[in-house]
From TrEMBL:
<dbReference type="Pfam" id="PF01764">
    <property type="entry name" value="Lipase_3"/>
</dbReference>
<dbReference type="GO" id="GO:0006629">
    <property type="term" value="P:lipid metabolic process"/>
</dbReference>
<dbReference type="InterPro" id="IPR029058">
    <property type="entry name" value="AB_hydrolase_fold"/>
</dbReference>
<dbReference type="InterPro" id="IPR002921">
    <property type="entry name" value="Fungal_lipase-type"/>
</dbReference>
<dbReference type="InterPro" id="IPR044819">
    <property type="entry name" value="OBL-like"/>
</dbReference>
<feature type="domain" description="Fungal lipase-type">
    <location>
        <begin position="237"/>
        <end position="439"/>
    </location>
</feature>
<protein>
    <recommendedName>
        <fullName>Fungal lipase-type domain-containing protein</fullName>
    </recommendedName>
</protein>
<dbReference type="GO" id="GO:0004806">
    <property type="term" value="F:triacylglycerol lipase activity"/>
</dbReference>
Length: 586
């Protein structure tokens, strides 16, 4: 395959050895990066000819044949970027309208105020207020943490009637519930986040992070931090915001298959590194600087013979700042720009401060979708940049509907560091955990086991999710049939089976109806993940030793659907009863 139009292959930059890749400090790490901002071709020409506007690459000649994936990626990213302004306006209009209706008790309540001339009582939504919810909040307004008062819950804990967090078992339902609700809350504005953490959860809000993405030229990475109590905390939780429905820049990050290969770490999704404020593809020097910063820090630890950093408890504030010096590869004027907070550096610095005052605290990371990818990648980059004090404090990492982050080498690196602490939850036909593709050409891999839940929230632990690359004519019919079942189950059965606390909002049901066209999109809803944690077996069933064939998973799902309908029929006959769960909403 010719390299014309694909990118210049730089000779002498990378050398392939029997044990992998090596680069000198002055050499740029191996990378492949789509550049949708360049204007080499129009969008129509791109779609017609399949030629990318520009792809920067440094890789050996025999890897040039892989670049077809960048053409697909470029088309997706270009289309998403072109529609950003329109979609952002649509998203704002949708959120404002939803809040306007909810604050005025729905359409009927608003109509009553109008016809009775009570116009002064009409509430006008204020974006950013503590009662202005995102679309995620309207789809699933649950915000109270789970308290297991069932017989099984009481048998498992002497404090089943109260919230126990952090639990001694980081894989427990209670820990998972805190993390999934934190991942959901991360979509809200800072005032909503603070209100829910302090008033509903009775915990301590620490900080909301609104961070700069140099490649996208905007503040597009959000996260927040909270502790279980203000002093002598036992848990510090960091939750990253995921992909917003109408934010096409977020979706472009998920569908951008660009990567960079860092020595000792492997291939990493470039868009996620950019979201953490570590690099930008527009400046290849940032890739080299990131790698060299990590090398320098690791070499320093090795030279000192330190397996662990000195405890932050023993350091002064100035020493803490020095110990958490920027790892970012971005230029210094960006690193030191207070108006453009960089996610990795800012969060790391704040964690260091919190651990200094709370030496017994464990760290928990959580996120959904894009937020799941960042929650997964952030602790890996802590390890890569030798932040060993923080690594030793990690209690658990929970991701929900997370896209793939790295290649096979990255998977091995992460598995070696985080076995037993990483919980990757996947719901049924959710599309996002199945991209970027795990095939011979793209070579993206998940690490760790998959906590898989089917459409009635029965869970099992698998080596990887069924139908790992989503697209396939053999599965399209079953996925559409399953999507139809999900609409019926969410609209009628789940409330009858588990109580009114699991009734879905009209907006959520509408999204499921829309998912009949593309089942993987509706499957990505956080409602599915909250239900999976609360209704499914958690921890899920004993790990399956070998990969499970898709047919067996489909038949298992079908049996569960039949069983669900049978049990509901029995309940109607008075032979069963619903489960109980908390029901407070936003």
């Amino acid at each position: 395959m010719a390299t014309s139009g694909i990118g210049k292959v730089t000779s002498g930059i990378s050398k392939v050895l029997s044990n992998g890749w090596t680069e000198d400090n002055d050499e740029t790490p191996t990378f492949m990066a789509a550049q949708p901002r360049s204007h080499g071709h129009s969008l129509s020409g791109l779609l017609k000819h399949g030629q990318p506007n520009r792809i920067d690459a440094t890789f050996p000649q025999d890897l040039a044949k892989q670049t077809w994936q960048q053409k697909v990626s470029m088309i997706c990213v270009k289309l998403l970027w072109r529609t950003y302004t329109v979609m952002k306006l649509m998203g704002f209009a949708t959120e404002w309208t939803l809040n306007f209706l909810v604050l005025n008790n729905g359409i009927l309540g608003l109509f009553f105020k109008l016809i009775t001339f009570r116009w002064g009582s009409i509430v006008i939504p204020k974006p950013g207020a503590d009662n202005f919810l995102s679309m995620i909040g309207h789809m699933d307004p649950r915000c109270d943490l789970y308290v297991d008062t069932s017989a099984a819950g009481k048998a498992a804990s002497t404090r089943a009637d109260a919230l126990v967090f952090p639990d001694e078992d980081v894989g427990s339902r209670r820990t998972a519930d805190v993390c999934v609700l934190a991942a959901k809350l991360a979509y809200e504005n800072p005032n909503v986040v603070k209100r829910v953490v302090e008033q509903n959860w009775k915990m301590h809000f620490v900080k909301f992070f609104n961070c700069w993405n140099e490649y996208q030229k905007m503040h597009n990475t959000q996260a927040f931090m909270f502790m279980d109590k203000p002093k002598d905390a036992n848990a510090v939780v960091v939750a990253f915001r995921g992909t917003e429905a109408f934010n096409t820049y977020d979706w472009s990050t998920d569908f951008d298959f660009s990567w960079v290969k860092l020595d000792g770490l492997g291939g990493v999704h470039l868009g996620f590194l950019e979201a953490l404020g570590l690099v930008t593809r527009e400046d290849p020097n940032s890739l080299r600087k990131l790698r060299n910063n990590a090398r320098t820090r690791r070499a320093l630890h090795k030279e000192r013979g330190l397996e662990h950093e000195p405890s932050f408890r023993n350091l002064s504030p100035d020493q803490i700042k020095q110990a958490t010096v920027s790892a970012s590869g971005l230029p210094d004027h960006l690193v030191h720009n207070r108006g453009r907070s960089l996610a990795f550096d800012d969060i790391t610095s704040k964690i260091a401060e919190v651990l200094h005052d709370n030496p017994n605290a464990k760290l928990f990371f959580a996120g959904h979708s894009l937020g799941g990818a960042l929650a997964c990648l952030y602790p890996v980059m802590l390890q890569y940049t030798a932040q060993t004090e923080m690594i030793n404090k990690i209690g658990a990492i929970y991701t929900f509907g997370q896209p793939r982050v790295g290649d096979a080498e990255f998977r091995k690196y992460a598995n070696d560091k985080f076995t037993g602490k990483y919980f990757r939850v996947v719901y049924c036909n959710d599309m996002v955990p199945r991209i970027p593709f795990d095939n011979e050409l793209m070579q993206f891999k998940h690490f760790g086991d998959c906590e898989y839940f089917n459409s009635v929230y029965d869970g099992m632990t698998l080596k990887k999710e069924p139908n790992p690359n989503y697209f396939g004519f053999g599965r399209m019919l079953t996925m559409h049939l399953n999507a139809a079942w999900e609409v019926f189950y969410a609209a009628i059965l789940i409330r009858l089976q588990h109580g009114k606390e699991y009734s879905e909002s009209n907006f959520s049901l509408l999204s499921r109806v829309g998912g009949l066209m593309v089942p993987g999109v509706a499957g990505h809803s956080l409602t599915n993940y909250v239900n999976a944690v609360r209704l499914g077996p958690f921890p899920s069933r004993e790990r399956v030793k070998e990969d499970v064939h898709d047919f067996h998973v489909m038949s298992d799902n079908f049996r569960d659907i039949i069983s669900c309908m049978y049990l509901e029929t029995m309940k109607i006959l008075g032979l069963s009863r619903p489960k109980n769960a908390p029901g407070t909403t936003y």
